Each structure stands twice: as C-alpha cells, then as structure tokens.
Amino acid sequence: MAEIKCAACAIHAVVAVVDSGKCEKVVRLCQEEGVLAHLVSVCHGTARTEMLDLLGLGETKKETVFCLITADRVRGLMERLADRMQMRYPGKGIVFSVPLTSIGSKAYHMVTCGRQAGQEKEVQPMKEQEEKGKFEVVVTVINHGYTNLVMDAARQVGARGGTVLNARGIAREEVEQFLGISVQAEKEVVFMVVDSATRRAVMQAISETAGLKTPGRGIVFSLPVSQAIGLS
Fold this sequence. Notes:
Helices cover about 30% and strands about 30% of the residues. The chain is α+β, with helices and mostly antiparallel strands. It has 2 domains: about 130 residues, Alpha-Beta Plaits; about 100 residues, 2-Layer Sandwich (Alpha-Beta Plaits). About 10% of the residues have low confidence.
C-alpha cells in the first residue's frame, strides 16, 4: 500500500461525540463542508452529573462520528459543529481533532479531492482553552466489564468522563504467548480527553488499576489533540 507521511499532507481525524439520535445531523453538517469520509459508531458516555447520580445512572447513550479532513479546514468544521450542535454549552457533546502521522495514498486523495489552489484561507488561532497541546486523548483497550474500574481510577486523578466503544479482540496465539495472558474476545475501548498536565497521572492510575497485570488486561496509550471544543 502506498503511504503518505502526514507531516507534509497534514490530515486530521475529527471526532464528534453527541447524544444518541443526533449523529445524522453531524454527518449532514460534515457533508455540507465537503467532508466525504466518515464513520459512525454507537457508544455510551460515562461522565457523571448530579442528576445521573441522583437517578442512580452512570452512563448515557452516545454516538460518535469520525471523519478525515485537511488541517486547514479543521477549525471551520469544528466551529460549525460547535455552533449548530450547541457544543459550547455543558452536556451538548464534544468535538476534537487528532493529527495523523501517515495515511494511504488512495485515502489521501479521497480526503483532498476537489481542493483547488486558492481555496485555502488563513486560519486564525483558536481560543486559549482550545489551543494545540492543551488536551490529549487517553485510550484504554480493556476486557469487557472493567470500564467502571478504569473511569474510577481516572477520575481520582482529574479525569471527568469518557466515551466507551464495544470491540472484539483478535490477537493471534503468538501475541497471547508474548503477553503471557489469554486475550478475551469481548473488549471495550474507553477514550477520554484530558488536560495534558494530568495525562501522565491518568495513564499511571489506569495502568496500576486495570493494566496488563490485572484481570482487566488493559492497554493504555495517548494521542495528541490539536483542537477541542466542548470541554470545560
């Protein structure tokens, strides 16, 4: 597969997390912006609120929309999503972007198709709370049923909430032998956007509580966030 390094092409993944039933509006807004590639996933949120605690509920149904876009268009798309989906108000969802390091050449041409010279506009810096480097995405791949353990550990060191996707492990036998564990088929992927200053503490807490040496068999890693809206 031909590959293009993204230091030059500057492709970002934009991720929007919204309440169940609102993903179609997000997809429509992305299409209006000329974003052709997108993936929709059903998930659930873990952020606590006073009302959820009062009702004895700890999670809400969510939908996640992933799309690929060139770096010069990220801010415009995020601003439009934030305004139309009211993400600047608490509890209305979040949207953030992650820079890619490389991408297949066909996917690159699909993302950049239709762009013409002279279309690019000068991008003004985001607000201080949305500046590059302030946030990171902490991703944990964990055995099914251990999400609450991960979130409890993360909250104790400053994380506020996360989003959970259901997944299935497909590790080969030699991978299991290398890790010295049996890889459970049912998995949950927990991702949470945290302040860069607390990222290390969050990852450490998760590793100690639900890492590979625990029944949760969790693997945790982080990704840089270039811009984020909807985080308080």
